[in-house]
């Protein structure tokens, strides 16, 4: 493994999170006495190689200004967009204005993944430091997979040995990522993560195995599970 490179971070945090059925976007729900978004930011703000961080927020977001980290000079605010990929591209545009160079590494991480641990972040940085493309944290699927028909009945069992779940952070060179994302969006290609933009541009991002508990909080039970787990931590 190589030494950890310096890096920028973009956190798309402009989603509504309707599947949580809450009174506010999921990144502002409480977990262990602070918001999910604050926990998510912690892992990066505590890293010595951080160059700067952009959070993409909804224009009318009333919650962000009340967070203590809103006044942190390393954090910059970009305007979120209609889809996650638009929010990420907006964050990248701001990084360009902040001085990011084409070869600099950028890590994109979901606001709703507060359980990223430093060990996973450092492994991603070290394993991709000399990679020509970049890559992402990912987790091999554990369960048997079924392809289903419109009638809700199984059509076939899928070979799971070659299927991984794409997690974040996803780590790419600033110039290549901005160009791929802008190009794919301009051609109305459906982009659900940064790797898919690079794939569209003809690249093969590398998978770095991460912990399965770096989950994206999507449903109420995800938050309950994490809150329960954290309440059992020795330092909690
Ligand atoms: O909705 P989902 O969980 O897939 O969103 C993943 C991440 O993308 C979340 O952190 C969410 O806030 C962000 N997002 C965004 N802009 C959107 C939609 C989602 O920044 N328009």
UniProtKB/TrEMBL annotation:
The record marks 160, 216 as: Positions MEP for the nucleophilic attack. Its EC number is 2.7.7.60. The record marks 19, 26 as: Transition state stabilizer. It catalyses: 2-C-methyl-D-erythritol 4-phosphate + CTP + H(+) = 4-CDP-2-C-methyl-D-erythritol + diphosphate. InterPro entries: IspD, IspD/TarI, IspD/TarI_cytidylyltransf_bact, ISPD_synthase_CS, Nucleotide-diphossugar_trans. Signal peptide: none annotated. Pfam families: IspD (PF01128). HAMAP family: IspD (MF_00108). This is 2-C-methyl-D-erythritol 4-phosphate cytidylyltransferase. The gene is ispD.
């Amino acid at each position: 493994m190589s030494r950890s490179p310096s890096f920028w971070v973009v956190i798309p945090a402009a989603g509504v999170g309707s599947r949580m059925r809450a009174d506010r976007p999921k990144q502002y729900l409480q977990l262990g006495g602070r918001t999910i978004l604050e926990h998510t930011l912690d892992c990066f703000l505590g890293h010595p190689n951080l160059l700067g961080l952009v959070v993409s927020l909804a224009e009318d977001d009333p919650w962000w200004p009340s967070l203590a980290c809103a006044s942190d000079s390393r954090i910059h605010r970009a305007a979120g967009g209609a889809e996650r990929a638009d929010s990420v591209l907006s964050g990248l545009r701001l990084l360009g204005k902040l001085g990011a160079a084409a070869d600099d590494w950028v890590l994109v991480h979901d606001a709703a993944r507060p359980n990223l641990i430093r060990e996973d972040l450092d492994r991603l940085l070290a394993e991709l430091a000399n990679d020509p493309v970049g890559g992402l944290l990912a987790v091999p699927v554990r369960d048997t997979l079924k392809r289903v028909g419109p009638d809700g009945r199984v059509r076939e069992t899928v070979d799971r040995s070659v299927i991984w779940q794409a997690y974040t952070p996803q780590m790419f060179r600033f110039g290549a990522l901005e160009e791929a994302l802008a190009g794919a969006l301009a051609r109305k290609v459906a982009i659900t993560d940064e790797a898919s933009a690079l794939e569209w541009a003809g690249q093969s991002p590398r998978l770095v195995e991460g912990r399965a508990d770096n989950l994206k909080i999507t449903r109420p039970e995800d938050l309950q599970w994490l809150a329960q787990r954290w309440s059992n931590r020795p330092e909690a």
